[in-house]
Batch of 2 targets.
Target 1
Amino acid sequence: MSNQVLSVGSLSASSGEKKFGVNKIALQDQTYSLPMWLIHGARPGPTLVVTGGVHAAEYASIAAALDLGRSLAPDKLRGRVLVVPILNVPGFSARSIYICPLDGKNLNRVFPGNSGGTASEQVAHWVFQNVLKQADYYVDLHGGDLIEALIPFTIYFRSGNEKVDQASLDMARVFGIHYLVRGETPGSAYASAAQAGIPSILAEAGGQGIWPAEEVTRHTDGLNRLMRHLKMIEGPEPKSVPCTLLDQFLWLRSDQDGFWYPSVAVGEAVKKGQGLGSVKDYEGKVLQSAASPADGRVLFLVSSLAINKGDPLMAVGA
């Protein structure tokens, strides 16, 4: 619980204030501009950090973070909210899939970062030290990337700290999305925050380069539910939503360059060993057959015909 001035880099907001601005991060060979809102409630309460756009073409999540930053009023807020709507700003301008174009790295695989590393590692380090470490609770908004379809789901990380993990699971349940996944993706922002003792979740909705109103609303409703649960805004305790908890988040990747032909749909229930699709060459020869590693459900699916060696094909929640 804090009522201290909220400061991030060159920006600050006192109690009852809301500030929008751009922090300039000095990298080794250039300056990185990072827009954000600092919303400091008129009454004391917890600090919530919300980020979007670590994957810069996951537009429903970015639109939701923008909506939150634009709409949240400090006179209606207990505590402090820090909103960074796009972490991968160069990737957003470039309409980049997965990576930051400054160094070709996936920003969500290099947290907590490295002050002496590549551009993405330096940005991750600055964000972790200056933004995420201020959080009492952290939500990282995501969705299907430009070439990914998905069903909505929420992920929390098993840090090994029972208290933090339970708080993260509680956040995921309150967010209101049916599928919950225990994730263990190293280098991701939410996982690094959880390992640092901050209850954290990653929420997924939307995809394929579009931002339907219902998917943006899924994110904003989840944030509203969470803030009500944390007593940061007025409103009743959110009603419980039936949840299915998935213990495993099983990714399948391509080991060939070629053409991707999925044989299942996103959201479909699958059985262990079931064929899920194939990667073919120009003449139609099967280069790789993808089979389900477990009984489960297809959480996301790459919808691009083009596929490169090392690219994800889909993920099964089991």
Target 2
Amino acid sequence: MAEIRLPAESKYESELSALAAADKGPRPPGWHLSPRAVETYIMGSEKPIAVTPKYIGDRALVQVAIATLASDRALMLVGEPGTAKSWLSEHLAAAISGTSSAIVQGTAGTSEEHIKYSWNYAMLLAEGPSERALVASPILRAMREGRFARVEEITRTSSEVQDALISILSEKQIAIPELGTIVSAQRGFNVIATANTRDRGVNEMSSALKRRFNFVTVPVVEDLEQEIRIVTKREAELRSDYQVGAEPPAELARLLVTVFQELRRGMTKDGKTKVKSPSVALSTAEAISVLFGSGILAQHFGDGKVTPGEIARSLAGAVAKENADDLKTVREYCETVAKTRKGPWAEFYSASVAALRG
């Protein structure tokens, strides 16, 4: 059976192999590609090798992130939800280490065992502490193999988990007292973490932990054309992966991204009309989800063509997930803004009357 989602190193294996073969630049210890080739993989290129862009945004931001990972500092990607922090983290790890699989997903239930190690208790009872009974965490495996480890949503983990990271980042070692050993990281090991700015106050990082990271802020996309490129590119990839044949017209992708940007900004693009912003994060990732969901609606419950009606219905589900009052906010936007515009906006307004009733 086909996998739902291939990791970056598998999906883009041909690009990574071609870059590695042509890469003449100096490579830091343990790196599969030189920093310049990693930048090419992330940002894309047409010559001398055709490489699809994985991140559409500020090249300088990517360069700083790569330079950080070539040093002894860990990298922290911070930003609003849906700004491609995890996406960028995955592709950096794939390009540099050849794998993005050493990952710890930060949640309230993440424990110190997820950061260090645990035990196969049946084997532990049978033969006592041993290497065979040890269950290495993704970070411990990455240290042994000289690869990158990823920690997602670090501010959602407890202070005990964050404290465990401090010693790892400082000493590059994990002690296993039950075995009387210390595992030291091999050259090439580093950590890429992500943090959501909307989670500040959940489990705020200590100053000691912050000092172990170099922070790079992944911004919300402000440029309309840039966000349209991101949304349409990623939505096309999802349609291909999930075999969805209904392709949203370019004018509807533009309409949707315009709605998202104006609601985020609290102002229409021409600066003439103020609008209320919803509490939900109308991120680029959410726009991708809405556009992709519209295609699924059209294919299975429509005539196979994406219309403003599918956009409105899919948007309603995205808006109401955190606060039902946000539906009212988007309805007000449709009454004051969408209603006054022509073309697909007129049909979008008509469809929104029913879709956004709440």
